[in-house]
Amino acid sequence: xxxxxxxxxxxxxxxxxxxxxxxxxxxxxxxxxxxxxxxxxxxxxxxxxxxxxxxxxxxxxxxxxxxxxxxxxxxxxxxxxxxxxxxxxxxxxxxxxxxxxxxxxxxxxxxxxxxxxxxxxxxxxxxxxxxxxxxxxxxxxxxxxxxxxxxxxxxxxxxxxxxxxxxxxxxxxxxxxxxxxxxxxxxxxxxxxxxxxxxxxxxxxxxxxxxxxxxxxxxxxxxxxxxxxxxxxxxxxxxxxxxxxxxxxxxxxxxxxxxxxxxxxxxxxxxxxxxxxxxxxxxxxxxxxxxxxxxxxxxxxxxxxx
Length: 306
Ligand SMILES: NC(=O)c1ccc[n+]([C@@H]2O[C@H](COP(=O)([O-])OP(=O)(O)OC[C@H]3O[C@@H](n4cnc5c(N)ncnc54)[C@H](O)[C@@H]3O)[C@@H](O)[C@H]2O)c1
What we know:
By secondary structure, the protein is α/β, with parallel strands linked by helices. It is built from eleven helices and 13 strands. The protein has helices spanning 11-22, 55-65, 79-84, 86-106, 119-122, 141-160, 185-195, 216-225, 245-256, 280-286, 294-305, and strands spanning 2-6, 26-30, 46-48, 69-72, 111-117, 163-169, 171-173, 202-204, 210-211, 213-215, 233-237, 243-244, 263-265. Helix 2 runs parallel beside helix 4 (86-106) and helix 9 (245-256) crosses helix 11 (294-305). The mean pLDDT is 96.
């Protein structure tokens, strides 16, 4: 199958590319290298350095590649930056995603797989683990725009017959996540603990906040499964279990041999307190479940950063 991955030079997108290649698909990438890196992309893959907001350039790539399926991972993925610059954030995540949908419409793409978010879109949950029927109440512009694009996906499906599958990720971690990035507490802690310099890792707020951490190869696999399954569906990809930031800090410090005590800073605005996602629907329709346990995933991440 011909698959085009937007954001394929980024953290999650590059793992999607790798697994699509392993499954025997022909893959191309659109990425403007805003946060992604050319080195993340296999040399066998054509990388188009194009901004998804550039309608003309994007359509040229789609016309040349004629992908059957598009896995749309490109985004501004930081909650904090979305709070600082909601307009710039929406420009990439809403207008850029619309341009991707338009390019799909005009070049006869069969299916779009969309990288949504569970935590940031749902907001503070009424119950956990959160399933797909839980009301949506985003606390940040990032959560709002990721959710807005879900509606666009549904209406492109209803009006123009584009098959769509929405994958709402929980907190994804693993090799190639940016340790200097805005998001990704595991990568940030591992990077700072291994570097050992000052200041050491800082826990935002009490550290009691909980997230559902899924290893990156597991969400990449969900994208491969969604090539053929889950049309019209929206799926939460989580383990159902929350882990606190304090527990992460302690586990990583143990693995790395980091001896300094935890330091705490101010809590971040726009962040959910505690969340975990139920993946029962993804198990039923996609045959997906998270397979890499947290302890093993943390060890793989530490090894890759070393
Ligand atoms: N990391 C997580 O825990 C998480 C959780 C939920 C959802 N997501 C979603 O998963 C997707 C991938 O996130 P990630 O963590 O790998 O982030 P990332 O920043 O590593 O990857 C995003 C990629 O998109 C590219 N990009 C950004 N703006 C672009 C533009 N205008 N045109 C073309 N390319 C552009 C970047 O260069 C980068 O390679 C995003 O859609 C994000 O919202 C991530």
